[in-house]
Amino acid sequence: MPPFFTPNPGATPTGPRLGTLHTSHGEIQTPVFMPVGTAATVKAMTVDEMEALGAEIILGNTYHLMLRPGEKTIQKLGGLHKFMAWERPILTDSGGYQVFSLAQRRKLKADGVEFQSHIDGTSYFLTPERAIEIQEALGSDIMMVLDECTPYPVSESEARKSMELTLDWAKRSMTAVLRSRGSFVGDHPSQLFGIIQGSIYQNLRKECVERLLDLNDTKNVNEKRTTSAIGGLAIGGLSVGEPKEELYAMAAHTAPLIPAQFPRYAMGIGLPEDLVELVGYGIDMFDCVVPTRNARNGQLFTTFGEIQIRHSRYAEDPRPIDENCACPTCKKYSRAYLRHLYMAKEILSSRLNTMHNLFYYLSLMSQIREAIRKDQYEEFRRDFYRNRISADDATRE
Ligand SMILES: [Zn+2]
Fold it and tell me: Where in the chain are the domains?
């Protein structure tokens, strides 16, 4: 079987690196940004538009899909790819994050988490095994283990307790995945990612990586496997309210602890500058609702920083959002028109703004990959910040 992840041969253990993820729905070039398609749609975009923007993988939310329309319905209709007419790879989360942030009356137990749907109050019980079962029913290419995302701030003892639960759930998830992989036929089975927790405590982050790798090795030996139970490792529990320096310090500390053969995924990150920084530490994968959600709220990302399109200074501004941008929105429409659409609450506002923001994020990643390829990442990083600083006040918010 071909390997799931092939890092560039020249990659160093700590710096920015290029790689390729191999899935049954196609290859993904890393570092990659994964747009979030919460409820089987990247809000406001068609799949044709997503392809044209160059998205190689999108993310689906297990919590939302299990509640509505339900994974059984999606499975009956041929799986999530077919259901939403997206032929490229999909990563699904475990549902845990939304259970802890959205569900009503949730109750954490050693076995799993009991909760009521935020839509109609129906009771559910999500266990590590159940989270895998749902993701398999959806036909996900990359599945995540159920974990408890440690909030911020927490004491070290609370963070440890939460990490122990996450490790126990990771072990059960690996068992569940290996069990179903026994019957897999084909080239690329769906991959399971472990999640590293430990809040802002460096010792806990280190211990969590080591114990996840131990679990994986033990599983592989006991089951006499030639392939690994886990395909990659994610850093969870970041961007949950901690200061930016803590986020960067924790990513810089944790990334090099992850062996080079595993793709490194920073969950829920982030802003453009976060991507630029974390790629520098060797992170390969990112996802975030920011480009899509903020687009609908009128915040647009540009090479010179962020702008709020509702601002009155754009009322008669004939320029595109960003003169350096080649997206379909910037090619045709002015800031004045986009401001008007936003103020008038026109549906088109969300569509055009989302198109621009996703184009910005995806083209930022492609510039990042190009800079790594040319071995000019530091220069790229310097220019990225310089462009923001040199913009005149009339252009910026
Ligand atoms: Zn644009």
Answer: 5-10+35-288, 295-389
Q: Say whether 287 is catalytic.
A: yes
CATH superfamily of 5-10+35-288: Queuine tRNA-ribosyltransferase-like (3.20.20.105)
pLDDT number for residue 391: 59
Nearest to 250 by CA among 306, 181, 204: 204
- Rounded to the nearest angstrom, the distance between the alpha carbon of 50 and the centre of ligand 1 is 14
Computed over every residue of the chain, the mean pLDDT equals 94
Catalytic residue among 141, 274, 284, 287: 287
pLDDT tens figures, 360-395: 999 999 999 999 999 999 999 999 999 987 654 545
Among candidate residues 93, 147, 274, 317, the one labeled active-site is 93
Choose among 271, 234, 279: nearest CA to 93: 234
Distance 384 CA to ligand 1 centre (A): 17
Task: List residues, by chain if needed, whose CB lies under 5 Å from ion ligand 1.
Answer: 325, 327, 329-330, 356
Distance 226 CA to ligand 1 centre (A): 46
| pLDDT surpassing 50 at residue 397 | no
Sheet containing 5-7, strands listed edge to edge, beginning at the edge strand earlier in sequence: 5-7, 19-23, 26-30
95-109: pLDDT as tens digits: 999 988 888 889 999
Letter string b/e over residues 338-357, b meaning 16 or more CB atoms within 10 A of that residue's CB: bbbbbeeeeeebbbbbbbbb
Beta strand segments in the chain, E: 5-7, 19-23, 26-30, 32-37, 58-60, 90-92, 104-108, 113-116, 123-126, 142-144, 191-196, 232-235, 264-266, 285-288, 299-302, 305-308
Contacting residues for 23 by C-beta, under 8 A, at least 6 apart:
4, 89, 141, 142, 188, 190, 191
Per-residue pLDDT reduced to its tens digit, 19-77? 999 999 999 999 999 999 999 999 999 999 999 999 999 999 999 999 999 999 999 99
Rounded Cα–Cα distance for residues 1 and 163 (Å): 33
Question: Region 206-229: what's the mean pLDDT?
Answer: 87
